[in-house]
Amino acid sequence: MKKYWILIVTVIALIFLGIFIFNSSAKNAIYSSNSSLGKTINGKFSTIGNFFADLKSIRNIIGQNKDLSDQVNQLETEIAKYKELQQENIALKEELKFFNAQKNKDLLGAQIISKSVSPFLEYYLIDKGKADGVIVNQAVLSQGYLVGKISQVYENYSQIELITDSKIILPVIAQESRATGLLKANLEGLYIDNIPIDSELREGEMVLTSNLDQSLPSDIPVGKIGKVVSYSSQIFKTAKINSPLNFSSLKFVFIIRN
Amino acid sequence: MFGWLKIIVLFAICVFVQIYIVPNFEIYRSFPNLMLIGLVMLCLFFRFSYALAWSAAGGIVFDLYSPMYFGVYTISFLVIFVMLYFVINKFFTEPIFIFIMLAFFAGSLIMDLFPFIITGYKVYLYLLNAGINAFFGTIIYYLFYGRLRKENIYKLYAPFR
Q1: Residues A146-175: pLDDT tens digits?
Q2: Which DSSP category does B96 fall into?
């Protein structure tokens, strides 16, 4: 009998805690108490975790290495051409004052403190918050590619909802064919759904965020088109997206503040 | 008192490892849940106070670090505690191997039920995660079995004799 009463009292106490005490200030204080140690440990163990994941794919790595060596040779030729174009571009930018427009991107660097406690939810906690000018729905990048968007903000910390989360639906556009679609995620990775059947999507084409989503800036790279799946009986195509980011081993990200 | 101190230290270590280390070693998007494993262990070894405190505190910690509404994990942990502790106490003596695996498996299913529903992932990820918790939980149970087992009050449920 005594045990039942203890259980009932505990449940009531927890309800009281949840309603009246655990708000965003309390969460912020708790994250502050262990964030520095957490950052160090998370950073070190994400490298170790990445090592074990890499061992599994060693056979693929050998094949990819050969392909990449061929690509590097091709890219070196293209780099020489681009350097010429770059010189011309700089001159044009200075004439048109286009260079100043690029400085409008206000990037804030942040470190990942912890990852999601549940394998079903793709959320990361970072060490920047309201005090640093972070607000909800700002885009988060890594290596120039979209990682996700800010979903919750506390005083000194924020939560990022990754694009690999199953609840994400993001309008995107293919850079060359201009085919639009909706970016989604499942266990196999990222894919674009609802692509018009008559669009001429090509493998390797860059995919960018579209201006149809007012919450995120447009023209942010998401990844490249992988396999395109199309059936004659359907009115939409689906395409797999290959992102160069390894989401499980991210340590640093950038938030677009404006 | 010394028992509570050990539980608190163990809890703190489990929280730290679960939040900062374990998510880096996912196995096809699944990883073990040390808070759940600790709770089930305490229930299986008939430690009412420790198990209740562990379930309440573990649920709060998970809710703090989860993007979902506060209380989802706290309620899940308490439900697991109530189901396991009172079911074991009522029907079983020393739990058999199958029951131990089932206890961890069922605990994981209860804990991940709400996230599974809102994310809409395929059932096999839900079951795989439960299987991983059952696997690691059973191993840890038998590692600590000799140290934690004391004289339990044995009640034999007649149909299973």
Answers
A1: 999 999 999 999 999 999 888 888 999 998
A2: P
